[in-house]
Write a structure and sequence with these properties.
By secondary structure, the chain is mostly helical. It folds into two domains: 118 residues, no CATH class; 127 residues. It is 79% helix and 0% strand. It is built from eleven helices and no strands. It starts with a helix and ends with a helix.
Length: 247
């Protein structure tokens, strides 16, 4: 069976995300998480939003979720059931089962299913990625740049780089095919830059300090990714032209 690109990507990301998610959920809360000062409920919402989004995409990769299809309900019930079991076994790993954590799990799952119902994969992926970046950047009480600078630096480069890739996949191919040089770069960086501005500006209202280093690293991630995508797109186009001319 030939798997579509969204399904392949969802399965790969699930293979990377779910094991790490499972391990972190079944060990004592890491000190780095405690030091971040982020609400445990926020983390539950984000974690289950990502899990449900990837599972929903794997189940229905080529179209929006339809609630007339059994698989959509199976994903919803499966993720909520997984969250319930996860809470019930918390006592065995030195944690406490919490109804509010489970409610946060359900909220995250419902957000993801709502996104998949309303939007196709790449647009939904952009929404989920942007929401995760915004939340992780602004909803901590600690200063991540001071508490864990290396992790914070890697996060800003990779997160904004990933969002640039996801946004670029949302651009119509007919638009990209006509864009060359700086115009092509500008199209790819436009929305990632808007997300960066929104995130940092909102941080000021949420009493988050503005760190120039974080902004620079995010800009590096956006610019490097956009340039790499433009180069790759140009190389693929040239190869196709050469192959067509050789026929």
């Amino acid at each position: 069976m030939i798997l579509s690109q969204p399904r392949r990507l969802a399965l790969v990301l699930l293979g990377l995300y779910w094991p790490g998610f499972f391990i972190l959920a079944h060990i004592p809360i890491p000190m780095a998480v405690r030091r971040a000062g982020m609400s445990d409920k926020t983390l539950h919402v984000l974690a289950y939003m990502l899990l449900a989004f990837l599972l929903g995409t794997a189940a229905s990769p080529d179209r929006r979720l339809s609630w007339r299809r059994v698989r959509s309900w199976l994903v919803l019930v499966g993720v909520i059931g997984y969250g319930a079991v996860d809470e019930l076994v918390q006592a065995k790993v030195g944690r406490t089962a919490d109804l509010h954590d489970f409610i946060a799990d359900v909220v995250g799952c419902c957000i993801a299913m709502g996104v998949l119902t309303l939007l196709p994969f790449w647009r939904g992926f952009a929404v989920v990625t942007a929401a995760t970046i915004f939340a992780l950047s602004n909803l901590t009480t600690a200063n991540p740049a001071a508490s864990f600078p290396a992790i914070n630096a890697v996060f800003h480069v990779l997160a904004y780089g990933l969002f640039t890739v996801v946004w670029s996949r949302n651009l119509p191919s007919c638009v990209l095919s006509r864009a060359v040089g700086l115009k092509a770069v500008a199209l790819r960086v436009s929305v990632p830059l808007a997300l960066l501005v929104l995130t940092k500006a909102s941080g000021r209202f949420l009493s988050r300090p503005l760190h120039a280093g974080e902004t620079v690293l995010a800009l590096v991630g956006i610019a490097a990714t956009a340039l790499a995508l433009c180069f790759l797109s140009s190389a693929i186009t040239n190869l196709r032209r050469k192959s067509m001319s050789g026929l």
